[in-house]
Amino acid sequence: MTAAARMLLRGFSELGATDTMCHLGQWPYRLSAFADAGTLREYGRRHGLHAIWVSHLAALFGFDTRTGNEAVLSACACEPLLRPFAVIDPSETGWREELEWAADAGAQGVRVAPGMHHYDVALAAEVIDAAARRDLLVQVIVRLDDARVRHPSSPARDLAVRDLAELVRSRPSSPLHLSGLNLAEATEFSRHLGDDVPPGVRLDMWHLNGPTGVVSDPGAPLGDRRVFGSGFPVQTPEATMLQIASAGLPADRLRAIVTP
Asked: Which residue, of 54, 185, 191, 234, is most buried by count of CB atoms within 10 Å of its CB?
């Protein structure tokens, strides 16, 4: 890493950012992509993070979501930095009970992953409604890995942008974060919704790592809806941090990105 990059990362660490997309557990296709609570604590210390929103990868790859959700709630119980998000699969018959249990156990948000759990995106609308009754934010995991380098054994599939736009359009009053859209998809998403993007919609940035100018480009699609989410440990977080730190944005815009 160059001296200039290290300087930019030091500047990023002074922002007190919240990372809105992190995970506990082992990514099954790369041995180095692993994090436990200690790993995330050190990651947060190294980069001056104020909070880390975290779920467990086992809830994406296991036979059910409960095992991973139990693990993340247990790991976060004594870690004020870590904010647990439960993964909910609406194709499971007991998902409503799972959401209620997670909310009662201290979950601070919910994640859905239609591309990992293989259900129609529209099913997530019911999860959004149930989460809203418990005052929980919903994040849609669009992807966690690039299809161009995806392992052939991966169950993941990419989602149709039009389906995401229809989901957002169907729930205009609900806060909703979309994780993993690339620049072309963000542009298409913006075109589908036009001027009707609900105020609570946010897009995280880990899959927008190049071109680096997209954060500071005033004409970038949904540029005012970006939040910092790194995908750590599946993705390398410094790439997104450098993108933000090098953008030359005014202080209020930086705060909006790093403190959702």
From this structure: 54
